[in-house]
Write a structure and sequence with these properties.
By secondary structure, this protein is an alpha/beta fold. The chain folds into three domains: 161 residues, 3-Layer(aba) Sandwich (Rossmann fold), CATH 3.40.50; 78 residues, Orthogonal Bundle (N-(1-d-carboxylethyl)-l-norvaline Dehydrogenase, domain 2); 154 residues, NAD(P)-binding Rossmann-like Domain (Rossmann fold, 3-Layer(aba) Sandwich). Helix content is 42%, strand content 13%. It contains 19 helices and 14 strands. The structure holds uridine-5'-diphosphate-glucuronic acid (UGA). Uridine-5'-diphosphate-glucuronic acid binds next to helix 11 and helix 13. The site of uridine-5'-diphosphate-glucuronic acid has 22 residues, from helix 11 and helix 13.
Length: 468
Amino acid sequence: MRIAVVGSGYVGLVAGACFADLGHDVILVDNDERKLSALKNGQVPIHENFLPELLSRHRGQRLTFSDDLQQAVRASSAIFVAVGTPPTERGEADLSYVESVAREISGAINGYKVIVEKSTVPVYTSEWVRKIILRNGAEPESFDVTSNPEFLREGTAVTDFLFPDRIVVGCDTERAADVLRQVYEPLTSGSYYLRSDAIPQPDRASIPAAIIVTTTKSAELIKHASNAFLAMKISFINAVASICESVGANVNQVCHGIGTDSRIGPRFLNPGIGYGGSCFPKDVMAFRAVARECGYDFRLLDEVMRINEDQRDRFLRKVRSALWTLRGKHLGVLGLAFKGGTDDIRESPAILIVQALLQEGCKITAYDPAAMERAQEVMNSTLKYAASAYEAARGADALLILTEWEEFANLDLSRLNQELKYPIVIDGRNLYDSEVMAANGFTYYSVGRAACHPEGVPAALRNGAKKA
Ligand code: UGA
């Protein structure tokens, strides 16, 4: 099938590369010349597993890049719109890019086209896209507007795309549904997974992929409701973690106890410094705004956002309670990305915490395996960068863990202890077992668990006694 993908951001680029891997001919359209020439020259603009392989496999063959939207529309049967929908000041999604793409598509319709919303958009968007295309002269029978939300997580976007829990396809005509069924046929029939060059299957993959066909509006709502629900799950466990801290319970045990109920499930129950990224903060706000516009006052979502912000303040209070005064204190920071496995720092709670601590006069040396270059673009020059976790810890009054990189969960604890001036670790991601940390000579603060001190550990377990 010939497919156009409009917008070469995160979603568009991953979708385009994966569609090409499914065997389709894809034109990836963007109006940013610099982005296009970087892509044509073999650069990979985002840090994403398997994306470099897919781009080099298909670039210039099944995957081409163009700035000519109308030509791409004429050449394709399905046009996936994956342009940005940034938040406005009122928290709504700004749909002006979607509208201008719809206008341009209209003039290029030369046969039946399925226009697919891939960006996260509010529930009334498909109706507007249809109106705009009609207003600009297209025949009503010559196109359908559909919704095919993506559920990709950054860092695992390619495997999430190729091994999805489900594919949601929102269409109001059978004709459009057939086109989208065809697009995903290699995944739903399972033929993709039999190929020797298929991207390796991750744990927990359920193959072949399931497809859920709904109305367009339902699909639009599924996307917002999914992200809002996941954000709610994180805020819920963060609130429970705060109670655990007050009463001396252990949030890990509580998570295990509730997560093993199959109706609740264990995933997205990791407490920490709150959710960030380009999706949850924006989508919860946008869903709140959509509900308001529809006449429903979705106050639950206000509370989800409030708990999320509060989580950062609680962490800052924890740093203060561990170190007393902050001015002039030297902190090592592990993690700047909004989560592990990505170089993305958008709405990163780690960045917001580092900024707050710099403002309080701390001297910070940070290390992140992928996000330091991006951080340099937004952080003031007082932030120093290290080449490794140990270098970030060197001579520091305390070490802060702010991103859940796997690398940070496997540090050599005795080396870390030797590097730090004081063996204090304040872990915003609960990467370590408190008792192991205490046994290795650390004073260890985490989220939803009691602080541990080396003194509290029986002598027999104390193998990491600190130098004087
Ligand atoms: C999220 C959704 O998980 C995807 O399904 C969705 O497609 C995507 O948004 C989107 O709308 O494009 P993503 O933002 O890449 O994906 O990252 P997540 O893995 O969901 O993490 C989001 C934030 O929540 C991170 O800051 C992470 O550290 C935090 N988090 C996640 C927790 O604090 N606890 C958890 O248990 C899980």
